[in-house]
Amino acid sequence: MPKIPSQVFLYIRKSKNDLILMNVIPASDGSEPGLTFTPTEIPAGQETMYTITKPQGPSAGDPFGQHAVRTKNNTVVGKRFYIHKDIIARSPTNETITVVSISSPYAVFGWSLKPNPVAITTLVPVVAQLPPPAPAPSTTLPPFTASPSAYPVPSPGTAAGIHAAATATAAVAKTKIHRTPMYNTLCPFVAKQLFDLAVLRKEQCPVTMEDFSSGNTAVMPCGHLFMQFAIEESFKKEPGKCPWCRQAGKPTYV
């Protein structure tokens, strides 16, 4: 099992992707197991000496083993750790600081965590420049020069005229456009299929880093899944929008 360094940046995946400098204290003896995380205040004037380079958007992280952690209530719980190699953090002495995250961090540290004011540089992905599209071929048709006598129109009062009018009405009825209404929610069957697939792949909520569980999962019409608590908190700021892609819709709970 990989060892947790004595000082790390704790990465909390939220709307702002907060980073919190933590001192990690191992157990003093076998009677009190569990790692103790203590938030570290950066001295005034040294905020810009800590440099963070991270990608644009959330970081997924790689599994970093399971460790016993002592919570704010002085209980010990097992938590899955993830290491974020795509986030590079350096100290004022230019030493690399490991960036980790854990599943359900608020269950361990509570809701009073505050991010450190550090200098963060976001790497914006480079978009490849595509060549300009080729000009479309000319579709100009030659002018119509046929004389009206070449296409005789039946008189309305004759049998031929009545038949022509009926034929034209039937053609319009057949070509009438039927619009399909747009739905902003998923049917329960499709939502359940997406939930089963996420559980099979061992995916987690991108907000709380928790495993999806039946009766506590929300599936958005765009296909993104969240824990019920996470989607309800997100809707307080942006009602009716997916926290991940901002597409409008209502969640289906499974």
3D architecture notes:
This protein has 254 residues and is α+β, with helices and mostly antiparallel strands. It has two domains: 7-123, no CATH class; 188-253, Herpes Virus-1 (2-Layer Sandwich). The chain is built from four helices and twelve strands; from the N terminus they run ββββββββαβααββαβ. Strands 1, 2, 3, 4, 5, 6, 7, 8 and 9 form a nine-stranded mixed sheet that branches. The protein has a three-stranded antiparallel sheet with strand order 11-10-12. A hairpin with a 5-residue loop joins strand 5 (62-70) and strand 6 (76-83). It is elongated. Mean pLDDT is 77; it is low at 172-182.
- Helix and strand succession? EEEEEEEEHEHHEEHE
How many helices?
4
Please mark out the parts with pLDDT under 50 across 5 or more consecutive residues, or reply none.
Answer: 172-182
The helicity comes to 10-25%
Rounded to the nearest angstrom, the radius of gyration is: 31 Å
Q: Return the domain count.
A: 2
Query: How many strands appear in the DSSP assignment?
Result: 12
Major pleated sheet: 9 strands, mixed
> What is the terminal separation in angstroms?
35 Å
What gross morphology would you assign? elongated
Summarize the structure.
20% of the residues are buried. The chain is an alpha+beta fold and 254 residues long. It contains 4 helices and 12 strands, in the order ββββββββαβααββαβ.
What distinguishing features does this structure have?
254 residues, alpha+beta, Herpes Virus-1, 2 domains, 4 helices
Give me the secondary-structure topology:
Elements: E1 7-12, E2 18-25, E3 36-39, E4 51-55, E5 62-70, E6 76-83, E7 88-90, E8 96-102, H1 106-109, E9 119-123, H2 159-174, H3 188-200, E10 217-219, E11 225-227, H4 228-237, E12 252-253
Parallel strand pairs: 1-8, 4-9
Antiparallel strand pairs: 1-2, 2-3, 4-7, 5-6, 6-8, 7-8, 10-11, 10-12
